[in-house]
Specification:
DNA primase, PRIM domain, four-stranded antiparallel beta sheet, globular
Length: about 180
């Protein structure tokens, strides 16, 4: 994974989250109990931290929601078995919905993908609405094996994703538009 490929995510690098082994922090949210496995580190997410993550020395996550309640990406976290079929169907759906810029990254687990839909400065409430709409449309064509972020189903501090490890596929609008 190169620095340029990671820059496509447009993440907030003012802080990051590091996975901790012993999680005893419980958070009650909407009648559910969550166990916080990540601690917030108020330090710059720089290249040295990213390289440690890529070498599997530490596990680092980034926040999807910035300090101004804006979202740069809507992310589909696929945890299923057939990543090729899922990406193909998701790609077609996203194109049909008019999302022409998205990148799929591989996570640590084989077959798992993070599809980052590059949306730009989007208000959090609008991003959640888009995420719910995409979730509904995707569930009509593929068995539910994913979560879409940002979501209101988890506490705001849980709208984080582990940094990806490699690029699976990139989709840019110009390559698709020439066929229309």
């Amino acid at each position: 994974m190169t620095e340029i490929e990671l820059k496509l995510i447009k993440m907030d690098t003012s802080h990051y989250y590091q996975k901790i082994d012993d999680s005893k922090v419980q958070i009650n949210y909407n009648g559910r109990i969550f166990f916080d496995k990540f601690k917030r580190v108020n330090s710059l997410l720089g290249l040295n931290i990213i390289n440690k993550h890529l070498k599997n020395e530490i596990i680092v996550a980034h926040n999807l929601i910035n300090a101004h309640n804006k979202v740069e990406n809507i992310v589909i976290d696929f945890n299923g078995t057939d990543d090729k079929l899922f990406y193909h169907k998701a790609q077609l759906l996203l194109r049909d919905e008019g999302y022409l810029n998205f990148t799929a990254y591989r996570s640590k687990t084989k077959g798992h993908l993070h599809v980052y839909i590059h949306k730009g400065h989007t208000d959090l409430s609008e991003a959640r609405l888009i995420a719910k709409t995409l979730d509904f449309k995707l569930s009509a064509i593929f068995p539910k094996q994913w979560r879409i972020f940002p979501t209101s189903e988890v506490p705001p501090s849980f709208n984080i994703l582990v940094l990806p490890y490699s690029v699976y596929a990139k989709e840019r609008g110009t390559s698709w538009l020439k066929h229309m």
